Amino acid sequence: LMQIYRPLNFIGFVYRELRQGLTDIEEMFKLLDQNPEIEDKPDAQPLAITGPVIRFDNVTFHYDEERPILKGVSFEVPAGKTVAIVGPTGAGKSTISRLLYRFYDVTGGSITIDGQDLRDVTQSSLRSAIGMVPQDTVLFNDTIGYNIQYGRPGASDEEVRAAAAMAQVGPFIEALPRAYDTPVGERGLKLSGGEKQRVAIARTILKAPSILILDEATSALDTKTERDIQSALDVVSKNRTTVVIAHRLSTVVNADEILVLRDGVVAERGNHVALLAHDGLYAQMWSRQREATEAEEKLLETANDP
Ligand code: ATP
């Protein structure tokens, strides 16, 4: 009965909040972000961070019991380093980021940050330590300035501008007639995928979390946008323990370690040079990506020829 009651109770709660005129969309997101199955233990402690070092120890996970997604994944992200996860679509890459944010609990093994099991710490302390830049950022129906400031409510206009500059989105915003006061979101200016991702990066720069999870957008970006995003990411991931679900060569080449995930296990690991030399799945993936990029560039050249 609890299984039926819990979700119903949750929906009722959301409904009541709406009825009470809680129109603040970000609060709604906070509510919807919660998986009601995940609860703090009665004796949960705030996460204490020194490094932070992230460890996945023989992690197994499934959404549905018949279909295992992760089948014993182990890796460590040393303090301040970047680990990139690559692999075919559906391999379970984003699942790893969801487990780290504790949207779900592992079904076997453990995930620790500085030796503390995620299941033993409070969710609020965990989530305030992590900055998440998702594939597709949801923008609030408010000004672009507000959307950046959301990373740290109370940040000054100057801090917002500095974060936007570091995220390579400052000049774009300042060229808009109403600059930081420009309304965005469904009812305002529509931003491209690349612009939205840079707004999310600016937000994260303000939040200044000790851990960063980055889910790169798969969509193709032009060379300049890709370069701008890469330099924004370099700023935000510097000296932060970073896990990146990587789709672009530029991100992967710079990672301290790359994990190639396939069929729920880490099939290959190493840095870019070592993995190319290994001449396995990774080497195949990148030669295919390079061929595709070269073909695209040729096409553009032909199109530009008079
Ligand atoms: P992509 O590169 O396409 O984003 P991915 O490697 O990030 O893929 P995941 O999003 O981690 O893959 O998904 C792994 C598998 O789990 C997929 O087969 C997906 O269909 C399944 N899956 C994801 N979310 C859920 C869910 N909430 N319930 C059930 N199955 C899910």
UniProtKB/TrEMBL annotation:
<comment type="similarity">
    <text>Belongs to the ABC transporter superfamily.</text>
</comment>
<protein>
    <submittedName>
        <fullName>Metal ABC transporter permease</fullName>
    </submittedName>
</protein>
<feature type="domain" description="ABC transporter">
    <location>
        <begin position="54"/>
        <end position="288"/>
    </location>
</feature>
